[in-house]
Amino acid sequence: MKYIAIIGAGSAGLFAAKKLSENQDFRITVFEKANKVATKLRASGGGKANILNADIQTRHYNNAEFMQRFLQKVNYEQIRDEFAQMGLKMSVDEEGRVYPSSFFSQTVVDVLLNNLGENVTIRCGFNVENVTKAEKKWQINDEKELFDEVIFASGTPAGIIPKNRRNFCSYLSDFQLKRTEFTPSLSGFKIKSYPKSLFGCKAKVKATLLRNGEPIFRENGEVVFKEDGISGIVILNLSAYYNRLDDKRNCEVSLNFLPDDDEYDVKNHLLKFHDVAGLVHPKLNRLFLQNRFNLRDFRLKIDDFYELEFAQVCHGGIEVTEITENFELKRFPHLYVVGEMLNIDGVCGGYNLFFAFASACCAANFINYGN
């Protein structure tokens, strides 16, 4: 009999528990600090749970070299088929985003929980403070039961308010792993000299991230104007590329409010109608009348990210140099790190949840068959 602990009952933790529970010689305990499982998974995709993307490529992630090797082991089709075998019916939109056909995140949580074997115990409201070596096995806090294998799947502090981030993953401190500090990713931008009159406005745009006037990344989508900055999926994706810059000075966002018509003659329109009311949101028209700007190149200087509690994902975490290709810690055999705890993050669209599920699948398969 082999005893396995999983720290964290989120996407990666539950997926690992499901895979491991297929082996009846395992006894699996999942420790979760919150009072219920899969809090972030329930909130993902605006409650619709964008769990995968049909276009999983290395360019969508911050560590392309690692991801290139990893995707040779586990790919989109494998994780899609795993969910299908659990009974989850899925729908794919025109952008390749994969959702449960119910378009309700609780469906994914229920499918994962319903497919856990009877050899899995979930203990919610349990704060793991220490993971220590004991009798060639691993002890969680002062629990009497010792574990042969432990999977770290605690996620990141993204979306967590400051008081709840205290001592986040403090059990890692004794291992002295090489880590990059967590910073917000997939987060809106605070803007210098922000035009507050645009608060509440939404617009379809082509958004471009610029550094020193040079384009870094561009994408079409909806921008949302907040009280002191901008958000929306297209901005979140720009933020992922912004976070990867070594030098974040002199960065701007350029918004093209006419993304589908590069030929439309704005000058002629103004000569005839004297405003742009027929082209853009009323708030944009009022701002334009006060101080004319280029509808195809409206520049906003980036001040900072929104704080961690407003981020969907974090950049940073345990460096991939600390793990083997099977997600086992090189210096601590039988300990594994999966999902968001690693310094791997992707853009919006199901890429981060794919990595959570796929890394958990890889570690579980290795525990099942590799040692």
List strands and helices in order, with pairings.
Elements: E1 2-7, H1 11-20, E2 26-32, H2 39-43, E3 52-53, H3 64-70, H4 76-86, E4 90-92, E5 97-100, H5 105-114, E6 120-124, E7 131-134, E8 137-140, E9 149-152, E10 179-185, E11 189-191, E12 202-211, E13 214-225, E14 229-231, H6 233-243, E15 251-256, H7 266-273, H8 282-290, E16 298-305, E17 313-318, E18 335-337, H9 351-369
Parallel strand pairs: 1-2, 1-9, 2-6, 9-18
Antiparallel strand pairs: 3-5, 4-5, 7-8, 10-17, 11-14, 11-16, 12-13, 12-15, 13-14, 15-16
Helix pairs in contact: 1-9
Give the structure's gist in a few sentences.
This protein has helices at 11-20, 39-43, 64-70, 76-86, 105-114, 233-243, 266-273, 282-290, 351-369; strands spanning 2-7, 26-32, 52-53, 90-92, 97-100, 120-124, 131-134, 137-140, 149-152, 179-185, 189-191, 202-211, 214-225, 229-231, 251-256, 298-305, 313-318, 335-337.
